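INFO  loader      accepted 1 record
INFO  loader      residues=200
INFO  predictor   begin
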Amino acid sequence: MVDEHQSESHPNSSDIASPCPLTQLQFVSTTVLQQALDLVENVLTSDEQLIVQSKFLPGSTIGKHLRHARDHFILLIDCVSGPAPHIFSYDARSRNTPMETSLSDAREAFKQAISRVEEVVPITNFDLPLTLNAVTPFMQTFETTFGRELWFAGLHAVHHWSMVRVIAGELGIKLQDDFGFAPSTLAYKGSEALLGKAKI
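INFO  predictor   done
INFO  writer      dumping tokens
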């Protein structure tokens, strides 16, 4: 479902000034997912670091936050990849998956997620209508669009990366300065990080 918002499949930092909203959202999505891939490829050194329970965020582990945030991208991409009507729920997540406890599984999971985003986003209509079912805790139904939900998935991931940052700090692990900071915050501070390039 291609429209005027269609973009190239591999946006880079030079594309973020493009007027195409879908290109910009794909850039944010792949950048955020790449941050997580870099974490499990180059920063964390043992499976144990994925499962250590946080002292400050009860019940939280790095592995759980990584899986939870990735799930949102996959649920959205799976929804728009199927036939209409496009109805989905972020509550239909898998828990206790291998990527929560294994660095090798986490690496593959994020590589797959990035690949799916790069494959599906450029050929999907930015304004494609979706129906979102949510437990709030009461069952609610919202009419939304693909573009809005892709934006949400990216910002939702940043929120969870901030909690990953807290747990990493408990473990004495230093992360990149932009990991877990919202793009609006990075832009406000004039950060040279990829997600801080679009000045506001």
